[in-house]
Design brief:
about 170 residues; 6 strands; about 40% helix; mainly alpha; two-stranded parallel sheet
Length: about 170
Amino acid sequence: MRPSDCPHVRKMESLDGPHMRRSNCLVSTCFKPYGFVVGAFAQQALQGKSLTVYGDGQQTRDFVHVSDNVRLAIAAAESEAANGRIINIGTGQETRILDLAEQLAALTKSQRSQSQPSSVFKPKRVVEIQRRCADTSLMESVLQDTCKKRLEDQLPAVLHWYQDTTEAVVG
């Protein structure tokens, strides 16, 4: 059975986590160049580059740590009350892409030269979702649970993972 044929597959929002590769995409509408902006920004920041922001950076995403996503997807698959229902897994919190860039740039400030801007802006992409934020009301009421990990608390671990992975590949 393909995952898309399974009645228990639930819509998953943007995933981030220290052991996710940025090319991994579990959502059919996720476009590889922008699907994992956390990973793209982390790699740029660790290389001492300015972070590439497409458009004005006002686009929003609902970032979910992979452990929360898996835990809640399993809970939904095991729940009789969730059977036949579409349950959005997310935090319900919008994060602007520009805010994400600023957080990662601040965490890796020593990697960049003083004169280098933290972000560079490029034209908005043709295929760009302006706003993505999960309505988590059904998840909260049916599963009686929420996402536990906050994006800002997980960013240092994400950076550490990308740094270790890059060193292992290069070294």
